Amino acid sequence: MRIPAQSVCTAIRDDIVSGVHERGGRLTEELLARRYGVSRVPVREALRTLEAEGFVVTRRHAGACVAEPTEREAADLLEVRALLEPLAAARAAQHRTEAHLKVLRGLVRLGQDRSRRGQGEDLRSLVGWFHETLAQASGGPGIGMLLTQLRRKVDWMYVLETRAASTESWSERAAIVDAVARGDAERARSLTAAHVERAKGAHRLRPSVRGDGVSEVQPAVNTAALPN
User: Fold this and answer.
1) In whole angstroms, what is the distance from residue 19 CA to residue 62 CA?
2) What is the Cα–Cα distance from 135 to 85, expressed in whole angstroms?
3) pLDDT confidence of 211, banded at 50, 70, 90?
4) Closest to 176 in 3D by CA, of 105, 109, 119
């Protein structure tokens, strides 16, 4: 059965974000096809998509390579997200469904419980799911897609420190959900803006993101295979 290019793209992107494919490293179609057990056709399509997303660049005499983000590019991502996430929250207050609220409240409960218990190993995933659900609740696929791409790049360029695991941070998210549930767009916007601004302090650049865009070598940390 032919594995779709979208699945190959997801697998390559995940390995780029986690550091399996190092910044600046070459991405040859032949080696990628062998790694993911596919033909070169979906790999070629996936590389085109990843280049459009900014994870891959094409270099003369080298072909496709993992992009090497600079500190300025990394900082810009946090600034853009600080503009989009409050907008998404305000829209969510106007367009959310009961299903969205149920998921958001469930994620808040999980986050608060695990932060109290000190179970921080999967809190970063819960944070991502929360904000993606909030974006989906905005009613427009465009905002959701942009924020998903931004969060992937932020995960690639930054290490998120302890603030995401704090009970205070989850209390802020609970207040955002309450505003969304009441349909109070302006409060949802302002609470989210304050939350995102405070969260900036928890982001630390990964060692391989440098002012001159030159990458340092990182060991492979993820060997996840394609989903069945």
Assistant:
1) 20
2) 7
3) low
4) 105
Q: Is the Cβ–Cβ distance between 180 and 89 less than 8 Å?
A: yes
Q: Is the pLDDT of residue 136 over 60?
A: yes
Locate 101 and state its tokens.
């609220």
Neighbours of 190 (CB within 10 A): 16
Q: Please state the three-class secondary structure of 51-112 as a single string.
A: HHHCCEEEECCCEEEECCCEHHHHHHHHHHHHHHHHHHHHHHHHHCCHHHHHHHHHHHHHHH
How is 108-162 classified by DSSP, letter by letter? Answer: HHHHHHHHHHT--TTHHHHHHHHHHHHHHTTS-HHHHHHHHHHHHHHHHHEEE-G
pLDDT value at 179 more than 50: yes
207 falls in which pLDDT band (50, 70, 90)? confident
pTM of the model: 0.77
Q: Which two tokens stand for residue 208?
A: 């391989």
